[in-house]
Automatic annotation (TrEMBL):
Superkingdom classification of source: Eukaryota
Keyword check for Lyase: no
The organism's taxonomic lineage, starting at the top: Eukaryota, Metazoa, Ecdysozoa, Arthropoda, Hexapoda
Annotated Pfam families: PQ-loop
Gene Ontology MF: a single term: L-cystine transmembrane transporter activity
Organism: Parnassius mnemosyne
Recorded family membership: Belongs to the cystinosin family.
Protein name: Cystinosin homolog
SMART domains per record: CTNS
TM annotation in the entry: 154-172, 184-205, 235-255, 267-285, 291-311, 323-347, 367-386
Length: 432
């Protein structure tokens, strides 16, 4: 650009020429006009869908709406980008929004879109605008599920609540047996210690994601089109499980326990998990990692504990050659819950033609199957390998009656004469 020199007088002073003033004034006016022009594409303030989740059947059509706030002053096109076109089809696949000479920034306009289910499965739909950037559609999306049968969907929903109830109730048979026997002999303390650690970690994960807005924001930034994986029933189950386990641990301090205690191996494992929790919590407090990563660490600890927590009890039953003191009712309810959980996964995989999630989610499927295997093993221990032992009652020799009786819980009692002991009951754990 040419530089304009100011005019110089003979006495050495200078002045700005009229040409220079005119040039600067012109540039100022042009800049102000440019800055004052309205948006090139008008004033569409917002666009959103009336629903972000849609469930339909194969060969079924369902209407949903895109809502537009404001009008553009040029014609725009909104195109639907379908993740899996073989699963769902949309009519129309492109919305034409005409421009207007006098845009209204507050008008509300709805556009009807028809979704047609072609085959079962899950798909996501996003939206693009032409010209690019004419309207912000980054937060507009649709999750759609096409299924074979609504009946299967209802059955799956009912199964979810049944196994939720079975798992929730499964803690109480052990509490009842401890109370009735006034003893926790036969219940492995390593199992209890691992259980309370696992459910505490599970509670931290669920409560953090369900109640903390900051952690929910972290999750949404990583998974912008995903729903929160933690629901209210997850929070209730984890907190209730922790409470029930604490009740059982309290019974260990109140009732007979002989020399039972948490083993050194169990303490070492728990110490390792606790160290991980402390370190990751410190990193979260120091801003080195996000709190969501801390919660993920807690969930991984829970998964590890689920894999190993039954081993101490199974080994203890093997050493004692008895399952007395270990509730088989707990195992039956856990088996029912685990079986229905896997059955629900199978029904959903068929209904949505999503077998990849069934076998691909190795964690959920593997843990469910692993728990079932242990439940079956405990049932075999109780009813086949170490059939429940007889309980002998030492009584005074003067008592008459049959030398064998039975209790309400199905166990047999044998009467043994003793002339030197007061009336007292002993559990000799004799093999039947």
């Amino acid at each position: 650009m040419a530089h304009i020199r100011p005019a110089t007088f003979p006495n050495g002073t200078s002045r700005v020429s009229s040409h220079s003033l005119s040039y600067c004034f012109t540039r100022f006016i042009v800049s102000m006009l440019l800055l004052g022009l309205p948006n090139t594409y008008g004033q569409i303030e917002e666009m959103y869908l009336d629903s972000t989740d849609l469930n339909i059947l194969v060969d079924e059509s369902r209407l949903f709406r895109m809502v537009q706030i404001g009008e553009p002053n040029v014609t725009l096109q909104i195109a639907l980008q379908v993740q899996h076109p073989d699963i769902v089809q949309f009519v129309p696949s492109t919305l034409d929004i005409p421009g207007t000479a006098e845009p209204n920034d507050t008008v509300k306009i709805t556009h009807d879109i028809m979704a047609y289910g072609k085959s079962p499965g899950h798909s996501e739909v996003t939206f693009n605008s032409t010209p690019v950037g004419s309207v912000n559609l980054s937060s507009v999306f649709l999750r759609i599920t096409v299924m074979h049968s609504n009946t299967i969907n209802v059955i799956s929903y009912i199964m979810g609540w049944i196994y939720f109830a079975a798992w929730s109730v499964s803690f109480y048979p052990q509490i009842y047996i401890n109370f009735k026997r006034k003893s926790v002999v036969g219940l492995n303390f390593d199992f209890l210690a691992l259980n309370i650690m696992g459910f505490t970690m599970y509670s931290l994960f669920n409560c953090g994601l369900y109640f903390s807005k900051a952690i929910q924001s972290e999750y949404q930034s990583r998974h912008p089109r995903s729903v929160n994986p933690v629901q209210l029933n997850d929070v209730f189950f984890s907190l209730h499980a922790s409470f029930a386990t604490l009740v059982t641990i309290t019974q260990c301090f109140l009732y007979e326990r002989e020399e039972q205690r948490v083993s050194m191996t169990g303490r070492s494992i728990l110490g390792g998990f606790l160290a991980i929790v402390i370190v990751t919590a410190g990193l979260g407090a120091g801003g080195k990692i996000e709190w969501l990563d801390f919660l993920y660490g807690c969930s991984y600890i829970k998964l590890c504990i689920t894999l190993i927590k039954y081993v101490p009890q199974a080994y203890m039953n093997y050493k004692r050659k008895s399952t007395i003191g270990w509730s088989i009712g707990n195992i039956f309810l856990d088996f029912v819950g685990g079986f229905l959980s896997i059955l629900q996964m199978a029904l959903n995989a068929y209904n949505y033609n999503d077998w990849i999630s069934f076998f691909g989610d190795a964690t959920k499927f593997g843990l469910g199957l692993f728990s079932l295997v242990f439940d079956i093993f405990f049932i075999l221990q109780h009813y086949v390998f170490y059939r429940e032992g007889r309980e002998f009652m030492i009584v005074d020799s003067s008592e008459e009656g049959s030398n064998m009786t039975s209790s309400g819980d199905g166990r047999k009692y044998f009467m043994v004469n003793n002339w030197h002991a007061d009336e007292k009951k002993y559990d000799l754990n004799a093999k039947a």
